Amino acid sequence: MAFESLAFHTKLRILRWLTRLLAWLDRKRHPVSTITPTSQISIPSTLSASPGNFDLHIYHPPGYNQSSTKKGEALYPVVIVLHGGGWCVGHARHDERFIETVTQRGRAVVVAVNYRLAPEHAYPVPLLDCVDAMLYIWKNATAMGVDKHRTFITGFSVGGQMAFASQYWLAQAIAQHEHPQIDRASLGTVKAITAFYPPMDLTKTRAQRAASNPAFMALKKKPASSSKLIGDIFDRAYFWNLPDTIDKSQICISPGLAPLEMMSRALPNHIYVKLAGLDPLLAEGKAAAAQFEAAGKHVECEVVENVPHYWDHLGKTEHEKTLRSRVYERAADEMEEVLRNVNKLQGKLFGPRTWEIGTSTSSLIQLVAVEYSSIRGDACFKICQY
Question: Which positions ≥6 away from 69 have C-beta within 8 Å?
């Protein structure tokens, strides 16, 4: 047992080092122009049984006026970003390309959460750190210059999973009158969730997930981001020292399996799910999007074809760089659309819009939209090709 633990932690240290190396190489190949956190604050854990602090990295848009916002004037929307990495690797600054896309528009403050990692802090600590971060931002909204009732949450991979799970956890805690440290008077409002390739059903094995995507199975060389070795590390780390019999169908572990009533009550009206065509998580992401729509939410499900899980953090070519920029720009557009309240359609009336994004190598990027009816009734689909 001691040897197995040593071997596991050795593999994890190597994986963490490789993750930092890949992030550095990506920034070197395609530099992020000027984005750095405006400030960094350390906040205490109040909800989990694991005491300690974790950091929030705060990014202000150009023209941000701290003196006026502290007076309650011109409060900005706030975008909370939850990084990926299988709950055990990664860092809040690894999503700075997306953060730059949002902040450079000058319309929002971004807070990236550097939640504590497993196995040192196993389930549910990373999730509760995300909830703690949200509650801290809401309680200190005026001082931070943000409007707590215009909160957006964006998550990548497991960050997307925790974006949904955090809403379920908070809804349950409030309904059950648990955790007196939650200041109900200071609660804000989440307007939308944007989740990039989130794991939504942890009851499935890695093999079952892979088999659910024929395009992935057809690959002669499987992407490293979906390897069994990495998957096993992620799975063991998050549930470290927890019973093997833990019920992974719990809604805070498998948010795609939540009852429709919980989805309807806990989640925001606007949900954007962005999936990868060569990802073993593709099927469960689509299934979750359909459930959100059934719960009455306005859902847009976007599939980027011919790319693997975590593709936007691993881009090697100019085309991938351009594709990443377009997908990020669309995500920022969707947030602004929610703020403008332009789209009055209700998901329950028109269904989710599903975007299929191809990865043609043409240097000319074109957006082609075709609307059509399907056997799903009055669902409205758009097929988009870059």
Answer: 75, 76, 142, 144, 145, 146
pLDDT digits (tens, 9 = 90+) for 8-33: 889 899 988 988 888 887 777 767 66
Mean pLDDT, residues 283-289: 98
Which H/E stretch holds residue 210?
helix 206-211
Specify the pairing of strand 190-196 against strand 270-276: parallel
| Residue 133 CA, distance from chain mean position | 15
Residue boundaries of the structural domains of the chain: 2-353
Residue 383 contacts residue 369 (beta carbons within 8 Å): yes
What is the amino acid identity at position 300?
Answer: E
Domain 2-353 has CATH 3.30.420.40: no
pTM of the model: 0.88
- 7 phi, psi to nearest 5 deg: -65, -40
Q: Is residue 243 exposed (0-12), middle (13-18) or buried (19+ Cβ within 10 Å)?
A: exposed
Cβ contacts of 317 within 8 Å, gap of 6 or more = none
